[in-house]
Design goal:
The longest helix is centred in the N-terminal third of the chain and has 72 residues. The chain is α+β, with helices and mostly antiparallel strands and 448 residues long. The N and C termini lie far apart (129 Å). Strands 1, 2, 8, 9, 10, 11 and 12 form a seven-stranded mixed beta sheet that branches. It has a two-stranded antiparallel sheet with strand order 3-4. The chain has a single domain, classed as Alpha-Beta Complex (Cathepsin B, Chain A). It is 40% helix and 14% strand.
Amino acid sequence: MPLLLLFFHIKNTMNYVDINSNEMPKKMYPTDKEQTRTTFETRSRRKRLAQVAATIASVILLLLAVLGLVYGSFYLYRRYVTDANDKRDNDEYLRKLVRQVNDSPETTWKAKFNKFGVKNRSYGFKYTRNQTAVEEYVEQIRKFFESDAMKRHLDELENFNSSDVPKNFDARQKWPNCPSISNVPNQGGCGSCFAVAAAGVASDRACIHSNGTFKSLLSEEDIIGCCSVCGNCYGGDPLKALTYWVNQGLVTGGRDGCRPYSFDLSCGVPCSPATFFEAEEKRTCMKRCQNIYYQQKYEEDKHFATFAYSMYPRSMTVSPDGKERVKVPTIIGHFNDKKTEKLNVTEYRDIIKKEILLYGPTTMAFPVPEEFLHYSSGVFRPYPTDGFDDRIVYWHVVRLIGWGESDDGTHYWLAVNSFGNHWGDNGLFKINTDDMEKYGLEYETAVV
């Protein structure tokens, strides 16, 4: 009985419908109007939920953006403060270095603070080498040295009496009809000193060889852009650049020649190595002349040398990791082999002087200390002598156009730099290399 009563209770509660009954219960099926209202309410509820979710998401994104802006502003401010402090510290250090040079009775030169001067630091340049291409260049240099033309060249150097070498010499005075010798280039924001100096030597020697009839500047852009084995905007080898002059030739450069120099000059005097990254990204080989140059096509504008060589004993890095080096034949190495004792500093300098006196300028590579960038006048010599290695900013290649003797009888080279006319002594400098000889200075050139 209790189960039966429960059954009837449930039946009544659920409004149970007897299948035999003709009367339909209310609320069992919603009407069309009720269905529409229910659907509308559901959609409205979903829409409101979506709006709430979108609002929350927008607020979250806005908060993230504000946090990112605050963090970014803080980072930029902190970097600005750090850079400002670093620049102030660097300026104080370099100004002190300049004062040391100018106040010392031992120095033979004067410095002027250069706001573009930098301290020694690592810039993280990555160098790549094509070992096969480098080995091919080394083999070509060896063949140059074994040629009959080189044998005649060596004989001329040997037969020229050292006593006939003047104490002072300036190539601009001996070859006044060659304006390229007086030209002071500006390498700008690319570490192309090796190409600039090599193209300068090529221009000078081409003019000298022509007795002053060829007066054009040859293109450093042709080297830095198209000679991949020579180097890039992080540096390179002038001997390879001069070998490229022999093999591939160089077109005219300068402002209105076939291939003018394209890198930024507004970044400093000189530009910081930190600017070289951007220049390297833009560096490209373009084998056509600029539009205003109508004299000849690119291939027809090439000028060639006969052979290239190094003056002072040196080696060349061939492996990509920089560990494998091979020796290249050199002029002074040749004369060393003929003697029982190696040439002393004075003797090998005399050979380089003969080379310049008879044939024209050469390049010279040397380590640049921090104080050199502030050179103003006189005969540069590293100062202070202590801690020189810690002050080397980079190795640099310049063009030697002469030499001389100071009042105390010490030797100096006269060189054209690649920092423009307003650096140093109108773009030039004198340098006593006595304290640098141990680093193995390099002198390269070529014969037309």
